[in-house]
Task: inverse folding
């Protein structure tokens, strides 16, 4: 079954392949394999690309490069997964972390494929409806207007508004598309000049997106801090470990703010409650966990709860996308139909 992994040019870039590889590696580590033994076992040398990848990984490990850096570089992992592996090097649960990261990547791939299936048909309908409106605006409507003028027909106010709407929609869609493309180009060329912390600050203020953003950051921070604390690492040292990682700059910023708050005499739950990237309940969870001596367990539990809620909200959002798009397309088609038929009916009534 390991031969099913597709490796091109010595790199593993497909998310589902990365997920399978991490899950299998985590399973081997849980069975007592070392990291090098797991890599040697998984990357069967029956393909030149697999041999190249195995050689690079084992060579980097022999030189003492961190596991997180090796995997991130050779597999091109998302920063979320890279940070998890980085923290696992400190709290020791590498096998479970890799299996969890593999599940995350596989689920992410499924969600992306599901999203594509949800929007591809409605998107095609929008394109077709837009083309119909362009043809109506540039070909059919001028002929109708000539016919109306020759017959002395004056459309009613409602019909005029409907015709104006149908004429304006193609321009509106073109304007929206131009704005989106311009924004995409600007973000692509200036993405390295914009601080991730700045982006996070603005994202946390957007009413709809902020909920997803805060759930994601709270889940990750609570989970990793809980893992570190459960392995005997102090709160301050755990925050310093989180601050030292370079995969997620926003967490670096958060950890730095928490450390400064602790130095100024504030309690951990007071510091966490002042962070705009977290759920508001995190302050209560930390205070409750410190009061009963179960802070590591409650942080991990709360992190898992945030992840479940994030998945539920994402799934609910996908369910609404297709009906909304279909409704939008339906209104387009109705507008096109009425813009053609209503003037004709009014002309027939006037005869």
Result:
């Amino acid at each position: 079954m390991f031969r099913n992994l597709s490796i091109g040019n010595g790199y593993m870039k497909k998310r589902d392949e990365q997920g399978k590889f991490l899950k299998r590696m985590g399973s081997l580590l849980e069975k007592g394999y070392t990291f090098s033994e797991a890599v040697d076992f998984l990357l069967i040398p029956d393909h030149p690309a697999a041999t190249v990848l195995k050689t690079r990984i084992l060579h980097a490990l022999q030189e003492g490069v961190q596991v997180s850096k090796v995997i991130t570089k050779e597999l091109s992992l998302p920063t979320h997964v890279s940070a998890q592996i980085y923290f696992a090097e400190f709290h020791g649960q590498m096998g479970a972390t890799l299996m969890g990261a593999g599940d995350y990547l596989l689920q992410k791939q499924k969600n992306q494929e599901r999203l594509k299936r949800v929007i591809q048909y409605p998107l095609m309908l929008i394109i077709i409806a837009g083309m119909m409106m362009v043809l109506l605006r540039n070909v059919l409507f001028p002929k109708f207007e000539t016919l109306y003028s020759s017959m002395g027909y004056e459309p009613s106010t409602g019909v005029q508004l409907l015709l104006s709407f149908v004429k304006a929609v193609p321009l509106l869609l073109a304007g929206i598309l131009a704005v989106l493309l311009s924004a995409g180009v600007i973000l692509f060329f200036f993405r390295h000049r914009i601080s991730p912390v700045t982006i996070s600050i603005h994202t946390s203020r957007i009413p709809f997106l902020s909920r997803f953003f805060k759930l994601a950051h709270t889940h990750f921070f609570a989970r990793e801090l809980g893992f570190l604390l459960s392995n005997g690492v102090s709160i301050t040292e755990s925050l310093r470990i989180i601050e030292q990682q370079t995969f997620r700059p926003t967490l670096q910023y958060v950890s730095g703010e928490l450390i400064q708050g602790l130095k100024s005499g504030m309690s951990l739950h007071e510091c966490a409650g002042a962070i705009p990237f977290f759920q508001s309940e995190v302050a209560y969870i930390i205070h409750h966990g410190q009061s009963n001596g179960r802070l590591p367990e409650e942080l991990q539990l709360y992190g898992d709860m945030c992840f479940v809620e994030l998945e539920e909200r994402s799934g609910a959002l996908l369910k609404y996308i297709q009906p909304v798009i279909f409704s939008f397309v339906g209104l387009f088609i109705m507008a096109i139909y009425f813009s053609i038929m209503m003037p004709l009916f009014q002309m027939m009534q006037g005869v």
In short: The radius of gyration is 28 Å. The chain has 14 helices and no strands. The CA atoms of residues 136 and 167 lie 8 Å apart.
